[in-house]
Specification:
about 325 residues, mainly beta, Immunoglobulin-like, four-stranded antiparallel β-sheet, 23 strands, about 45% strand, elongated
């Protein structure tokens, strides 16, 4: 079973930022309406991912560099959008080609470049709104760059993140991006049910794998080179486990087995407790695939219901599974 997570997202804001790659960003907003209520439309007419009622134009940012192999270059970047996955990014100018964004809006393309000059990247979101970016590729003798001072019109960094279980106990992974004029090397500090720090890479990406103390909010804070602060809140929660396919089988005159499957984000090592008409004190350890079995001897079986429950690593109790005992 895939993990389910929720995050408290702030209202999306699109703003023009000073990006040192001759970038021009056009943001607009539209209100999508329909002459007919969605409930009256046939199911086949509804797309899998409808754009929200208030859709914003996608924000695209990218950079290009040589791969040190002839005229081959790599173009990478991100698309910020309400539904960033599966969008097609089209390149023109000194490069021609397309690529598709991943689930977090990231994209990458390795291709030949025809000449030094501008590369244009364009993306259209599910609502038909367009975002674009311009990158200028040039080749020069490498030099040690001077220290970068924040520009006079420095904008506060924008930080976005999400958290999910690693399926190992209470360990979680937190990943995300920081959008800033100079995103590399910024320190992201976490608080709430997680404590720790990590540093952004050359594109503002960050990741941290750590233990979490409880279910609840995780706060991420970043300070840019100009001292401006960006923050985000992620609410980490975990669904209670569920026991499926529970059964009681007689293998011989006095030999019995209790079997079932636990559905949980981290099932391995959980303890299933049995009750009902079966002998008291019976338990079973859940395997990595969620299955469990308990063999036992029962000299005087009773007709009725056997039960099974399990608690996850957060002490959340599962459903009460029942299996009928036939004597």
């Amino acid at each position: 079973m895939l993990s389910l997570f929720r995050r408290l997202r702030r209202p999306c804001a699109r703003r023009s930022r000073s990006i040192p790659m001759h970038t021009e960003v056009l943001c607009s907003r539209i209100m999508l309406t329909s002459e007919f209520p969605a409930d009256d439309l046939p199911a086949d007419d509804l797309p899998a991912d409808d754009p929200p009622v208030e859709n914003f134009a996608p924000y695209i940012w990218g950079d290009v560099w040589t791969t040190s192999s002839g005229t081959t270059v790599e173009i990478s970047g991100w698309v910020m959008d309400e539904y960033p996955e599966g969008l097609t990014v089209t390149f023109s100018g000194a490069v021609s080609g397309t690529t598709t964004t991943d689930e977090f809006g990231g994209f990458s393309l390795i291709t030949d470049i025809s000449e030094l000059g501008p590369i244009y990247a364009t993306v259209v979101d599910a609502g038909g709104l367009v975002g674009s970016d311009e990158m200028f590729f040039f080749d020069a003798v490498p030099i040690d760059p001077p220290p970068i001072d924040p520009p006079a019109d420095n904008l506060a960094p924008y930080i976005w993140g999400d958290a999910w279980t690693t399926s190992v106990g209470t360990t979680v992974e937190i990943s995300g991006w920081v959008m800033d004029e100079h995103p590399e090397g910024l320190i992201v500090t976490f608080s709430g049910v997680v404590s720790g720090t990590t540093t952004t890479d050359g594109f503002g990406g960050f990741s941290l794998i750590t233990d979490i103390s409880a279910l609840g909010p995780i706060y991420a804070t970043v300070v840019d080179a100009g001292g401006l602060v960006g923050s985000d809140e992620v609410f980490f929660f975990d669904a209670a486990p569920d026991i499926n396919d529970f059964s009681v089988l007689q293998l011989g005159p006095n030999e019995w087995v209790l079997r079932g499957t636990v559905v949980d984000e981290a099932p391995v090592g959980l303890i299933v407790t049995f009750g009902g008409v079966v002998p008291g004190g019976l338990t079973a350890v859940v395997e990595a695939d969620g299955t469990f079995e308990r063999y036992f001897t029962w000299n005087n079986p009773s007709l009725g219901m056997a039960t099974a429950t399990v608690d996850d690593v957060w002490s959340q109790t599962s459903n009460l599974a029942e299996g009928f005992v036939f004597v």
